[in-house]
Amino acid sequence: MDLGNGLGATQNMLDAEIQSFFDSAPPLRSSGDVSEKLEEFVKRNSIASGNGGARRIVCVTSGGTTVPLEKRCVRYIDNFSSGHRGAASTEGTYQPFCRSLPDDPLLECFEFTDESTVQVRHSHSEAVRRAITEHRAAVEEGLLLKLSFTTIFEYLQMLQMISLSLRSVGPHAMFYLAAAVSDFYVPWKSMAEHKIQSSSGPLDMQLNQVPKMLLVLRKDWTPMAFCVSFKLETDKHILLEKADAALKKYKMHMVIANELSIRKEEVVAVTSNERISVHRNKSLGVDDVEDPLIKLLVERHSSYIKSFDP
Ligand code: PMT
């Protein structure tokens, strides 16, 4: 049996699927702008920091991706993610920005003092002041670059661009892939142009499988980066097994296993030889499970970087 050829054939098939996905994707509208911002951000942060070491750059993906059903999109399939995990993790690394604000800050934080003057309500003034100053500082110091996406096409095209630009950062780059990525899509070429008419009866539509890009990210796009992906399940009995399988199959450094209903309380960090339970611990004044999780990841990333020292 020629295992080498077998693996090669599987790899070729995956490469072909990935190529076909990108070929069928509508061109990223903001591609020039994204690549300019990325180049500037990576350049700025690749320069050695004050203490002589290179700065680390983490790509945090967060939120859901949509799969449009029509080119002039009225309907789409969505993948669940509130974006809380990614926001909490990013802010936890630097400063809290908007998480301490109410759900609808514009409507809840402000009030009119007379017909034309708006002011921040006293009850929210500290939270608003912190959110504005700390967010501004992170952006001005070049520590935060936010790139937004909606569709699966935008997400994966951007992920590829980011990966390729982080290649130069070597082991100082980390991927923290918390976005909920669609598994099925309608290829752009076969997508209806206009709104699908309900008068045509039940909708019968074939969806293609979205190729998993994790392996190609690890092997080809950014081979030296420290890669953390997530595994979400609703059935706790299969969660850790699936996380183990993802770790091996996609050659991740760590997979964070989370069960939907308790994802804000507990996650399990799975590595090749450990299963580390990470809990939110309110009694220690820790509000989010992301706080201890990020601490763990920073430690593991540091050891990973050190392993490249001569
Ligand atoms: O945003 P919140 O409401 O706070 O919720 C956080 C979360 C539950 C969304 C998050 O913690 C989480 O688990 N995100 C991953 C959800 C997911 O898509 O899981 P999955 O089992 O389908 O995919 C596993 C990994 O493969 C993910 O890292 C995903 O980025 C990646 N993937 C998935 C599908 C696909 N076609 N390509 C991929 O690369």
From TrEMBL:
Keyword Ligase: yes
UniProt cross-references to Pfam families, sorted A to Z: DFP (PF04127)
UniProt GO MF annotations: ligase activity
Residue intervals of the DNA/pantothenate metabolism flavoprotein C-terminal domain: 160-280
SUPFAM superfamilies registered for this protein in UniProt: CoaB-like
GO biological process, one term: coenzyme A biosynthetic process
UniProt keyword terms in alphabetical order: Ligase
Lineage: superkingdom: Eukaryota
Keyword Ligase assigned: yes
Similarity field: Belongs to the PPC synthetase family.
Protein name in UniProt: Phosphopantothenate--cysteine ligase 2 isoform X2
Source organism of this protein record: Ziziphus jujuba (Chinese jujube)
Gene that produces this protein: LOC107422696
